[in-house]
Amino acid sequence: MSGDPARDYYYGIVAELRQTYVTTKFAVAGLQHFADQTAQHGGSTENPDPRIFIGARAPDAEGSPTHHLWVRRSELETAADPHGPTPVTLAQQWIVSTFHRWDDVHRPHLAGLCGV
């Protein structure tokens, strides 16, 4: 703490930006890792684009939650592409969230601290 409330608040903003950016990057990296792991289990000649289950438990397990997803391997590969829809959407969500936090939370707070 510097003793200057505006400077301390600014450092908090920087830490928040870093945390949210790293979270976004980990989400993209996790998706790519998942795609890489599933690619190791190749399809067959009868089914070159198999469906992949994404869920907490096996889909037929007793008590398996209903919020799971089946995707084709090709869908996962498209989603994991660094320039594909999922990383782009996550980056856009980070930008919108960052702008919202600045415009609705941080800017008014800093203005108050600076007497503006």
Automatic annotation (TrEMBL):
Organism, scientific name: Blastococcus goldschmidtiae
Protein name: Uncharacterized protein
Domain of life of the source: Bacteria
